[in-house]
């Protein structure tokens, strides 16, 4: 119990001595009007500096998606730039989506769907070949069932004729 009382006394003495030092500092500063005026202007300068720094910091941060788009030669750079300014008025709600939008495109691979499109075209060609094989087999089957000679050559439209239709 006595150790707790000793700790409380020690803490109260430390606080009292700290309060005394603070009082002496404040009294010394308030006696000199020049120091008080200088500190007022210094505090005002710090406040203005922080306000300007935050203002330009917010602008720079909101231009990051546009800078990413410009670096990647994004086809929608202007839209990203305007949307960055709009995000200032929407309390930054759309800014993460702008970041994602800007980073999706790369000049070397586009939107990243080229391989999917190539694979889809290859599958279409395979399906066309399979359909042609089915037609040939059906013709051979009908020829065998009907006692006719099987047709070996099936006329298929060329790629140029398919594009025209």
> How far apart are the termini?
100 Å
Described by strand count, sense and barrel closure, the largest sheet is: none
The average pLDDT score comes to 78
Number of strands: 0
Low-confidence stretches: none
Strand content: under 5%
Order of H and E elements: HHHHHHH
Number of helices: 7
Structural class: mainly alpha
Helix content: over 70%
The radius of gyration computed from the alpha-carbon positions, rounded to a whole number of angstroms, is 40 Å
Shape: rod-shaped
Overview of this protein structure:
The chain is mostly helical and 165 residues long. Helix content is 79%, strand content 0%. The chain is built from 7 helices and no strands. It has helices spanning 2-31, 33-62, 64-71, 77-89, 95-104, 114-146, 159-164. α3 runs antiparallel to α4 (77-89) and α4 runs antiparallel to α5. It is rod-shaped and about 120 Å long. It starts with a helix and ends with a helix.
Concise overview:
By secondary structure, the chain is mainly alpha-helical.
